[in-house]
Amino acid sequence: MSIEFWLTTLVIVATPGTGALFTLAAGLSRGTRASVIAAFGCTLGVVPHMIAAITGLAALLNASAVAFQTLKYLGVAYLLYMAWSTFRDKGALTVPEDAQADTSSARKVITSAVLLNILNPKLTIFFFAFLPQFVPNDAPNALARMLELSGVFMLATFVVFAVYGVCAAAVRNQVISRPAVVTWMRRVFGASFIALAGRLALQNQ
Predict the structure, then answer these.
(1) If pLDDT is split at 50, 70 and 90, which confidence band does 159 have?
(2) Is the pLDDT assigned to residue 174 strictly greater than 50?
(3) CA 134 to CA 169: how far, in whole Å?
(4) What is the pTM of this model?
(5) Which residues constitute the domain of residue 113?
(6) Which of 60, 101, 188, 198 has a 20 to 30 A CA-CA distance from 51?
(7) Is 136 contained in some domain?
């Protein structure tokens, strides 16, 4: 596995985006366990894009403006929903009050994390353009090679996002003990989700 693949993967994964933002929010609001769950959910959300790239479905998405726009605006709508939920104290920054609420919150965290990555057409096209560069056309067992590289990318995603979340969880007590700070953070994260929705809406194929 080339050093170029590792460096490209780390740069892409470590660049702050929707998944990293959501994982940070989960760590700050619910602690280490929730941040790891969010990181795992974001990693699971990569799987459909990986399958699409390997099976060639990404080529169809790249070629079809209608398919791309449909998935893109579904992603925009979900990001706006996340912003609305955050502003209403029912999103990623809601602090659970008991064990039952915490269990329910864990389900919501992983579901939201998966959907955030699934509804991102750029991720599918990224896989379609990224993986083949490191798998020569005449390479034996090309499918196995692409699966291996995808697995490494997913592992890097999980590790980096989990580190983000755990670091956020480390300062959680200082945050949740100050209602004014929590309110400010909800506004910042809600506005960030809106900004990400706007950026996604302006993206082209």
Answers:
(1) very high
(2) yes
(3) 36
(4) 0.69
(5) 17-202
(6) 198
(7) yes
Q: Total domain count for the chain? A: 1
pLDDT tens for each residue of 64-116: 677 667 767 776 776 787 677 767 765 555 555 444 445 557 778 888 888 88
- Taking the C-alpha atoms of residue 160 and residue 98, their distance in angstroms, rounded to an integer, is 29
Spatial distance between the Cα atoms of 41 and 43, rounded to a whole number of angstroms: 5
Q: How far apart are CA 177 and CA 181, in angstroms?
A: 8
Which helix or strand (DSSP H or E) is residue 86 part of?
helix 65-87
Q: Quote the DSSP letter at residue 134.
A: G
Q: Which residue has the tokens 């353009």?
A: 129
Rounded to 5°, the CA angle 18-171-100 comes to 75
Alpha-helical (H) ranges within 1-133 are: 3-14, 18-30, 32-44, 47-55, 57-63, 65-87, 99-118, 121-130
> Phi, psi (5° rounding) for residue 141?
55, 50
